[in-house]
Amino acid sequence: MVSPTASLPGRDRPVLTPGTTFHEVLGTKIDQTPEGAEVAYFALGCFWGAEKLFWEQDGVLTTAVGYQGGYTPNPTYEEVCSGATGHAESVRVVFDPSRVSYRQLLRVFLENHDPTQGMRQGNDHGTQYRSILFVTDEGQRAAAEATLAEYQPELTRAGFGAITTEVTDAGPFYYAERYHQGYLAKNPDGYCPVHATGVRCRPASA
Questions:
Q1: Which of 72, 88, 136, 189 could form a disulfide with 43 if both were Cys (CB 3.0 to 4.6 A apart)?
Q2: Which residues are catalytic?
């Protein structure tokens, strides 16, 4: 992990102004948060496939991909992939809690990547591929920590190691370039494998 002093300087202007971008599948603005909706952030490897997993969930109103958890302001994709920004590839998920709970989204998160691999997912290596839950409040933190604790024995029984997923407060989310948004809707055959373990997550009801 790069240190703050060694990270790239970044820039003042964002690489994407989100208010001008509509979701490729859902048709909503990717930065909108309607009244009563909640926001969650998930980093689970390559954000192309991760975003699709979430936009397919009933109750999800919009999604966006971006960079989070590092030091460089408004980074580019190339800068993030260099490992010199400290950011992970992250998905911003806006959801209606009356239709889908944060706990249910945590299950999608855990069952669709390997949370024991540290800074990699399969052949994808680097700090941008690490597993992180960026929580927005104490309720999300409690749910995240409880769900990870419940999932660890299931992984252990299946022969996997310790969970390396970070749980940390959500800092700035920098929207990725336009071509990354809804990437697999625009490029159905695009490369972005899901590195699922096949281990089911059975969290307590939300």
A1: 88
A2: 46
